[in-house]
Design brief:
Elements: H1 2-9, H2 13-17, H3 25-44, E1 47-49, E2 52-56, H4 59-70, H5 72-87, H6 111-132, H7 136-161, H8 167-174, H9 179-190, H10 192-200
Antiparallel strand pairs: 1-2
Length: about 200
């Protein structure tokens, strides 16, 4: 009993749902593919804004939820697969009249956000594996760590990865228009996993 409790306390929600700490390759692959598809779907919920080339999407919420539910390594793998599909030329990135599909998207103004997704998923999953996803306030901290990575990489890429940008422009186009909405989405997402843990109990 004690061994089972200790194993569960250091496991992701996926491990507990399948009642197996050593997930089969089929379950791992299916879970990674499922979160990848959810990320693709969230990218299509895209609202272009006239004052910035960065569109508003639901992707950060899915990235963080997927990472926390799957755990650090599988969450990272789901986002690496998403980026690989985009680099291969599949139309998985947010639809945009100004931004191309394919690897060129990673070199544009949204490249920093996209490339941050594996790291943000890993961070949320790492903290969730240590039990931070089981209560709302600590779940907010886990999701907040991932969201901070998304903004840091996204704004940093605009500021220093693109010519003639700089930090003030990066903040005006990649942070201020999105931070409130993304924080609100994070608060909503942070409630999902604690509710799932309560249901399992």
């Amino acid at each position: 009993m004690n061994a089972r409790v200790q194993r569960t306390s250091a496991a992701s929600l996926l491990h507990v749902l399948t009642a197996d700490a050593d997930l089969s390759p089929a379950i791992r692959a299916g879970a990674v593919l499922f979160v990848t598809v959810l990320t693709i779907v969230a990218a299509q919920v895209s609202v272009p804004l006239p004052f910035t080339p960065v569109p508003f999407t639901l992707q950060p919420m899915i990235v963080l939820l997927g990472g926390a539910a799957l755990g650090s390594r599988l969450g990272l793998s789901a986002q690496v697969l998403y980026l690989a599909a985009g680099i291969a030329g599949l139309p998985v990135f947010a639809a945009s009249p100004a931004l191309p599909q394919g690897i060129a998207r990673l070199l544009g103004p949204t490249g920093g956000y996209l490339m941050s997704y594996p790291f943000a998923a890993f961070a949320a999953g790492y903290l969730a594996e240590r039990g931070l996803d089981r209560r709302y306030l600590t779940s907010v901290l886990a999701m907040g760590a991932g969201l901070a990575l998304v903004f840091a990489c996204g704004v940093g890429w605009i500021a220093w990865g693109l010519p003639h940008a700089g930090l003030p422009i990066a903040l005006a186009t990649g942070f201020y228009p999105f931070v409130l909405a993304d924080v609100l989405k994070m608060f909503v997402a942070a409630a999902v996993l604690p509710a799932a843990w309560r249901f399992l109990r």
